[in-house]
Amino acid sequence: MKRVVLIGATGVFGRRLARHLSRMDGLDLVLTSRSADKAEALAKELAIEASVPVSGVALDRDKDLVASLAALQPWLVIDASGPFQHQGYEVPTAALLLGAHVVDLADARDYLTGYGPQLDEIARQRGLVALAGASSTPALSAAAARELSEGWQRLDTIDIAITPGGRSEVGPAVIAAVLSYAGKPVPIWREGELQTTAGWGSGEVIDMPGLGPRRVAPVETVDAETLGPGLDVRSRVSFSAGLEAGIEQWGLALLGWLRRRGWLTEFAPFVPYLVKARRITRLWTSDRGGMRVAIGGIDAKGRPRRAYWSLLAENDDGPQVPVLAAAAAVRALLVDGIAPGARSAAEALDLAMIEAEMAPYAIGTSQDERGAGPALFETVFGADAFAGMPAAIRAFHSADAEPVWQGRADVARGEGAMIDLLCRLFGLPAAGTDLPVTVSVARGDSFDDSSETWTRNFAGQRFSSHLGIDRGELREAFGPFSFTLAAEASPEGLALPIAAWRVFGLPLPRFLMPSATAHETVDADGRFRFDVRLSLPFFGLLAHYRGWLKPRGSSDGSG
Q1: 477 - beta bridge partners?
Q2: In the structure, what pLDDT confidence band is assigned to residue 84 with cuts at 50, 70 and 90?
């Protein structure tokens, strides 16, 4: 039998993993905790139904770690103690030097980034395996993304979301990890490159299969840094999470907002109180949670497609999901199925291996793939009128268009305090000349495959709008404001004048309606050109921005 030492066995996830491993033949399972009584009590509880020997001992990772591990003579050390946000590599280093394999559940970005460089040489010299991130991220999320995109010609977007059931038990380590990056910069692959956004900041509502609409917000993972360049994603890789209890979700957003403004920087003292508060907030939630990986791009046959992998956990089996990758790694190690070396578990495990560990639980997965219909503007104008527009404009608006375009722009703004306030409200850029501009177009979302979200980035200032067809009309929404556009196509280009406007769906008076002259044309160099002028009754010019765009990575051309 192979001796497996599980550190942190009495924690929320450690306890789940311990129960799972106690039914895996070929192991001698040793459960550890700082408290010998807790470890022994858990061992006795599991031994009743276990198919392998289970024992419990005291082990404090911060005291006499090497001697404690050496006394146990492990074949494999699994670390489920967390949080890993501020931990070093003492545990995996000690285990490898003692001749043991290592698996941990760490999903902390900095910990994962340094794991291979720090430990790979030691592991290879000893013919051992060391895997980090054997959890929902990055092991499971990356495995799903790789399988969905297998053979695709182009991958534009990867959007990953996790929404646990609100009744699931959450320990202090998890809450401390979540608070550690609230309001801090977290990585996101955006506009085809690695950037940052605010943790638990700007959120959105998505459709979670089996759960319905859930609000999610960006969280810190390593997925953007690895999947973006690793899978050559043209536009976006995002990882978001959502809490079923709205007060918890908005509470994290508020804490993040306070941290970004420097009004509150240290959240550790709140952890014990938040653990107690969850005893109340969880009362109005369910035992059902889920995970979704959605990708978009051009499939193996050259067709614009969207593909989805989703997971639904019921009967409070959601907290089992983060330990499934670790269980899959143990099973693979038992048959020497993983090559020596230290790396992310995302590089060593495939989706089938992890899904196989779901069998004992109320956890199901499914995959779905759908083709893109006609592009939004092709639907608005009809195929003939769309085909009659200039090639550069069709290339920007087509269903298989490149998702990121770049160029240069000039921006003018009106004057006055009210104009400045309104520009800030809509996120319109500051005035400038020859500014770098990037426009990203995301086609389709959870609720409408034909919709589009445009994000304009003028020298680092971003603002977004959502375009779709509502009651047969083309509408563009900026937050609560939506504008009906009387779009006009011609061989010269595209015009988008405003015909009506609403706020929160309620019609507003036409005499107060902004006027817009928005034109898309093509210049002598064949480049896509935009010219948008926004004005207000009584106030005059709001903003005027104009410039040119080409698909990201293409030559700028002349001029």
Answers
A1: 466, 482
A2: low
Per DSSP, the residues of 306-319 read EEEEEEEE-TT-GG
Distance CA 442, CA 191 (A): 11
- φ, ψ of residue 104 to 5 degrees: the values are -135, 160
pLDDT number for residue 410: 97
Give the torsion sign (CA, 317, 322, 327, 328).
positive
Angle, nearest 10°, between helix axes 12-21 and 36-47? Answer: 40
Question: Residue 309 forms beta bridges with which residues?
Answer: 293, 367
Cα distance from N-terminal residue to C-terminal residue, the chain? 72
Distance CA 369, CA 307 (A): 4
Neighbours of 471 (CB within 10 A): 6
Query: What is the 3 state secondary structure string of 470-512?
Result: ECCEEEEEECCEEEEECCEEECCEEECCEEEEEECCEECCHHH
Query: What SS3 class is residue 180?
Result: helix
Average pLDDT over residues 350-365: 97
Q: Which residues pair with 501 in a beta bridge?
A: 483
Pair of tokens at residue 242: 């959502």
Q: Are strands 363-371 and 304-313 parallel, antiparallel or unpaired?
A: antiparallel
Q: What letter would DSSP give residue 448? A: -
- How far is 247 from 253, CA to CA, in rounded Å? 10
Q: What is the pLDDT of residue 557?
A: 41
Phi, psi of 544 (to 5 degrees): -140, 115
In 3D space, the residue among 302, 333, 299 whose CA is nearest the CA of residue 3 turns out to be: 333
Secondary structure, 3-state, 387-429: HCCCHHHHHHHCCCCCCEEEEEEEEEECCCHHHHHHHHHHCCC
Residue 7: Cβ within 10 Å count: 27
From CA 320, how far away is CA 362, in angstroms rounded? Answer: 10
Alpha helices in 181-289 (DSSP H): 223-230, 246-260, 271-281
R_g of the chain, CA atoms, integer Å:
26
Strand partners for 502: 482, 507
Alpha-carbon separation of residue 397 from 191, 392, 529, 530, 544 (angstroms): 17, 9, 13, 13, 22
Q: How far apart are CA 549 and CA 454, in angstroms?
A: 14
For range 377-398, the mean pLDDT: 94
103 vs 78: CA distance, rounded Å: 5
Instruction: Give 431: exposed, middle or buried? Use CB within 10 Å, 0-12, 13-18, 19+.
Output: middle
Residue 234's Cβ-side half-sphere holds a number of Cα atoms within 13 Å equal to 23
Report which DSSP code applies to 86: T
Q: Which of 58, 61, 31 is nearest to 44 (CA)?
A: 31
485 pLDDT higher than 50: yes
